[in-house]
Amino acid sequence: MTLLNHKPPVESCKLESDGFCFAYACDPSDSSLRSSSDGLCLGKISFVKPSSISSYLAKRIRAFRCAFVGVYVLLRDEPHAKIHLLATVIVITLGITLHVSKNDWLWLTVAITSVWTAEAFNAAIERLADRITSEHDAQIGTVKDIAAGAVLVTCLGAVVIGVMIFLPSLVS
After folding, report:
1. Where in the chain are all domains bearing CATH 1.10.287.3610?
2. What is the model's pTM?
3. Which of 46, 83, 84, 110 lies most in the core, judged by the most C-beta atoms within 10 Å?
4. What is the pLDDT along the chain (172 residues), one digit of tens a residue?
5. Distance (Å) of CA 61 to CA 28, 53, 133, 157
């Protein structure tokens, strides 16, 4: 197994005239992570200058912005996330159209968030595994299969919840 050249994330801060600071969540020297239009790392995250608010609050804001970058990357790069987005829109539209109860909305919310969470963990595991080695590795393949299986099980559970909630209204 060949380990890829791993470099820790580089954080650089450049104060802009508007008082915002920028940090990179990836290695800006890695050309595979660069945008073709502006040459900037696609993992770029902006955060409020720490001196303008308490250090604790600045760290929390930075953490939330990192999380939003993660959701953006998930939607941008993962084909299955686009399918989940379409399914989410369909479920919400059906729920509104069929006037589902508050209890049903709770179940739908659990189903939707469970699927998205499973997909995010699956994508993270796959990216990490791909970063460890570019060669075929049976154990890594098994780990990736298990993660994908978790998404499948979660999706099947969500479908069962959806059928139980929507089918009676659609049939009558």
Report:
1. 78-171
2. 0.67
3. 84
4. 444 444 444 444 444 444 444 444 445 455 544 444 443 344 444 444 545 557 778 788 888 999 999 999 999 999 999 999 999 999 999 999 999 999 999 999 999 999 999 999 999 999 999 999 989 999 999 999 999 999 999 999 999 999 999 999 999 8
5. 22, 10, 33, 34
